[in-house]
Design goal:
The chain has helices at residues 21-32, 47-58, 91-100, 123-130, 166-174, 193-205, 238-250, 270-277, 311-318, 342-351, 383-394, 415-421, and strands spanning 3-5, 10-16, 37-41, 62-65, 69-73, 84-85, 107-109, 135-139, 142-148, 155-161, 182-190, 211-212, 218-221, 231-233, 252-258, 282-285, 288-291, 301-303, 324-328, 354-358, 361-365, 371-373, 376-378, 396-398, 400-403, 426-428. The protein has 429 residues and is α/β, with parallel strands linked by helices. The protein starts with a strand and ends with a strand.
Length: 429
């Protein structure tokens, strides 16, 4: 389905942040790896978190769910022998489970999104698991991927962090369950270190001991550990809220978003700091971000590596800043559901934005008077692109049509309901 976004000058109202997708998928996984029954309060409901629910059930976890919580009886170190798993379009879920299913005799991950996840590479994780004695069949590092495991070995493990931190996180979930102690060395640069911090936080809550160097480049993991059954509460999601906050920043607004913890380890929390740097009037107290936007923004320079999933929303805000903004150290945006640099900027240009790309940078020459719009744009099946283009559409002179906007459900199914409730003129067609 497509969405028409019409010019909208004013947003007003209050919403609760949706629950964090990143924390939900991690809590679901550690609960499945526990021996016993865990409870996850306020889990996210999105295509990604639903993919993790579905797959851990296929692997033998028992789930009981109501409106506010999921109760999970885990399979521990003994996932069920299944032949196929379908993670949908969820890259992190695929990578985490590629490691966990190394405990299974043989599992094939099917390719149900050939134009999105099916194009993404997983070579670095395949190589690391291969070094642990896991046989893997694949097509140039892409789906479909068959894992033949059963008895992965610990010891000295090397993994590249240059493309994604998800490969490292995947190994951190697996290695505590192995008989041997493990040492993981990260090769090259490590992208999105802050997300590794979230993984370590969840593992610690699950009773797992991991000794990490301060720079997250070396890890010592004792083997023979057991995940403990625990109770978890999922915090509000900054990546999804980033687009709502950006929308409030570029319009005349009086918008409050609840459940956004000030001291969250989500790197995307930086969207609040960046909007303040852009002179957006806002406060952040007691878990509530209150934006009283006036549509006037200053340009900004920002290292986006720690806030990957908020960069596109910040770029959307910068499109209307009075001057040139630069978002650097963002090359890993190229390896997401689409190339979030080239593909996204091409669509922004169609709407009338003045943007440039480098291999690892996005440069935005702001147009404070707004954009022309009046075009149909392609969101490339990418939920973050859909949300960011919606922000841009609010300040176009003519409506924007966003193709295949229903893919926003990958992380934020209620996005258009929420932004519409605040006064945005959006319409499904």
């Amino acid at each position: 389905m497509d969405v028409i976004v019409r010019p909208t000058s004013e947003l007003k109202g209050e919403i609760g942040a949706l629950s964090s997708k990143n924390y939900t998928t991690r809590y679901l996984l550690v609960a499945a790896l526990a021996e016993g029954t865990s409870t996850v309060h306020y889990p996210a409901h999105s295509e990604d978190s639903d993919a993790m629910r579905r797959c851990i059930q296929d692997l033998g976890a028992v789930l009981e769910e109501d409106d506010e919580k999921i109760v999970i009886t885990g399979f521990g170190r003994n996932p069920k022998d299944v032949k196929e798993l379908n993670v949908g379009n969820a890259g992190a879920v695929l990578r985490f489970l590629m490691a966990v299913t190394a405990l299974c005799p043989e599992v094939t991950f099917v390719n149900s999104y050939p134009d999105s996840l099916g194009k993404r590479p997983h070579d670095d994780l395949i190589e690391a698991l291969g070094g642990m004695g896991v046989e893997i069949e694949h097509r140039d590092g892409k789906l479909p991927i068959t894992i033949r495991g059963g008895n992965p070995k610990g010891g000295k493990i090397k993994v590249s962090g240059a493309v994604s931190s998800q490969y490292l996180s995947a190994l951190l979930f697996l290695t505590p369950l192995l008989v041997e102690d493990s040492e993981i060395e990260v090769l090259g640069d490590l992208k999105s270190k802050v997300v590794v911090g979230q993984t370590l936080e969840v593992l610690e809550q699950a009773g797992i001991i991991i000794h990490a160097s301060d720079d997250y480049m070396n890890f010592r993991i004792p083997g023979g550990q057991t995940y403990q059954a625990k109770t978890y509460t999922v915090q509000g999601d900054y990546p999804g809220s980033a687009a709502i906050l950006a929308a409030a920043a570029v319009t005349k607004s009086d918008v409050k978003i609840f459940r956004l913890a000030e001291k969250s380890k989500q790197g995307e929390r930086a969207v609040v700091d960046v909007l303040q740097m852009m002179d957006v009037p806002l406060t952040h107290t007691d878990g509530t971000v209150h934006v009283q936007g006036n549509g006037r923004l200053r340009p900004v320079e920002f290292d986006g590596d720690a806030a990957t999933d908020a960069v596109l929303a910040m770029v959307a805000a910068a499109v209307f800043a009075d001057g040139t903004s630069r978002f650097y150290n963002v090359e890993n945006l190229r390896y997401k559901e689409c190339d979030r640099i080239t593909d996204y900027l091409n669509e922004l240009r169609k709407a009338g934005a003045n943007v440039e790309e480098r291999q690892a940078e996005i440069i935005v020459h702001g147009r404070p008077s707004g954009l022309e719009g009046g075009v149909e744009i392609n969101a490339h099946y990418d939920h973050r692109v859909i949300m960011a283009l919606t922000v841009v559409g609010l300040r176009c002179k003519k409506p924007l049509v966003i193709k295949d906007a229903h893919h926003v459900a990958k992380s934020y199914p209620q996005f258009f309901d929420h932004i519409s409730a605040l006064g945005a003129a959006v319409e499904w067609v």
